[in-house]
Amino acid sequence: MDTSIVALAAGIAIAIAAFGAALGIGMASGKAFDAAARQPEIIGKIQGLLFTAIIFIEATAIYALVVSLLLIFVFK
């Protein structure tokens, strides 16, 4: 397989995943801030849920990183 095509595919994969993760974290954080502004007494619960959501969102970006590294180093 052509190395330049593999590198392009890896770059596109990680770019799309990073964009999606950034968009997801931004939306989740915005909603968490809105909820905290409406009900400040449950900030601790909102914060725990937000951290859990951010962990899952970042996991998808890490999976894309693993896939792009596999593309680069395995499929030469």
Structure in words:
- The chain is an all-alpha fold.
- The protein has a single domain (3-73), classed as Up-down Bundle (F1FO ATP Synthase), CATH 1.20.20.10.
- The chain is 88% helix and 0% strand.
- Helix 1 packs antiparallel against helix 2.
- The radius of gyration is 17 Å and the shape is elongated.
- 4% of the residues are buried.
- The model has no long low-confidence stretch (mean pLDDT 92).
Q: Order of helices and strands, N to C?
A: HH
CATH names the topology as: F1FO ATP Synthase
User: How many β-strand stretches?
Assistant: 0
The total of helices stands at: 2
Tell me the span between the first and last alpha carbons.
6 Å
Secondary-structure blueprint of this entry?
Layout: H1 3-38, H2 43-73
Helix pairs in contact: 1-2
Task: Produce a short descriptive summary.
This protein has 76 residues and is an all-alpha fold.
Note the main attributes of this structure.
2 helices, single chain, 76 residues, F1FO ATP Synthase, mainly alpha, elongated
